[in-house]
Design goal:
Layout: H1 7-17, H2 23-31, H3 35-40, H4 55-73, H5 80-104, H6 120-128, H7 137-153, H8 156-178, H9 181-205, H10 209-215, H11 224-232, H12 245-255, H13 261-275, H14 285-310, H15 315-321
């Protein structure tokens, strides 16, 4: 990748960021007396008017907005790898959904995402026909391994662990192929965040170090062996001097049975703080990564606010659950 390939894209995306959701707009949505008033406030951000919609319609609208942007940006050849970094998780979400639905003897159509690289219908048809030849090798491998684990053990958690490992390994491989330090740093940070969450979850569930070793993902800034060694001593020191050091500090309290809300927020906020550094880059892949990360944050924030208002959750509670705004 050459930074100069992104001159036009950087200008275009930074112009679009100016109309994205901001802290002030979030405040107006939360303070709106009615759901419809909050929904109409999003028209200025480029979203359709979602007033009068129910939760399923909101989800479809948000997914459609994201997919339209993905489709548009895919037209730029220099952008394909960067887009795939964000599309990947939806492919592997669909893998998990299909494998679990097979184990439970139910359908997965209602929970499949259309935001991945592989069409949800295409993946579902290949899965049901047990013909995975047209799927990318990592995805077909993940399906085969997960189905095998679930059939042998009946444990969907173990199947999910292997799917997650494949996802993060492909994520890291894509980031490395970009040969861009900012992009690679973002991927490594996501791996660190996943490993930190896994360590805290293992401690809260009383899992031992052997189980943690199975679940950890290699490739982050914090070495997997160091994480396991620290965990054995009831410590998270392996994450010191990384982007998620603050989250690790909160994770220690969560490991001992404390509230998880602040910890989970810190894990989510770390990548958002990282991408804010892209503002200091004149042009290049970092600008695209920052925009796509902000888009994911925006969609998630809108979903939390609108569905929260629909279900009668107070504005104060919704505000406490929102991730930091870096737009």
């Amino acid at each position: 990748m050459k930074d100069t390939d992104f001159l036009f894209l950087t200008s275009m995306l930074r112009a679009r960021e100016s109309v994205m959701l901001t802290k002030e707009k979030i405040g107006r949505m939360l303070d709106a007396p009615e759901f419809d008033d909050a929904a109409k406030a999003l028209v200025d951000c480029g979203y359709p008017d979602m007033s009068g919609m129910g939760a399923p319609q909101i989800e479809n609208t948000l997914q459609g907005h994201r997919n339209a942007i993905f489709y548009e940006l895919a037209a730029y050849d220099c952008n394909r790898v960067l887009l795939d970094l964000f599309r990947l998780k939806y492919d592997y979400h669909n893998v998990k959904a299909l494998v679990k639905s097979k184990g439970a003897g139910t359908g997965a159509a209602g929970i499949l995402s259309g935001s991945g690289r592989i069409g949800a219908e295409k993946m579902s048809e290949a899965f049901l026909a047990d013909d995975l030849r047209d799927l990318p090798a990592p995805v077909s491998d993940a399906i085969g391994i997960a189905v095998g684990i679930l059939s042998r053990t009946g444990n969907p958690q173990l199947a999910d662990i292997e799917v997650d490992k494949t996802y993060f390994m492909e994520l890291l491989s894509l980031a490395e192929s970009s040969e861009d330090g900012f992009v690679l740093g973002y991927a490594k940070l996501l791996i660190d965040s996943a490993n930190l969450r896994t360590a805290v979850r293992c401690a809260r569930l009383g899992r031992d170090t052997d189980f943690l070793v199975i679940a950890l993902i290699p490739g982050g800034y914090a070495d997997a062996h160091d994480i396991a060694a620290a965990f054995a001593d009831s410590s998270l020191d392996a994450f010191s001097h990384t982007e998620i050091e603050e989250a690790a500090r909160l994770g220690l309290d969560a490991m001992r049975g404390g509230a998880q809300t602040a910890f989970e927020l810190a894990c989510d906020n770390a990548p958002l703080r990282y991408i804010s550094n892209a503002a200091y880059v004149s042009f290049g892949p970092a600008a695209v990564i920052a925009y796509l990360a902000k888009l994911e944050w925006e969609v998630t924030t809108i979903r939390m606010i609108l569905t929260g208002k629909l279900t009668g959750i107070s504005s104060e509670v919704i505000r406490e659950r929102l991730r930091e705004c870096h737009v």
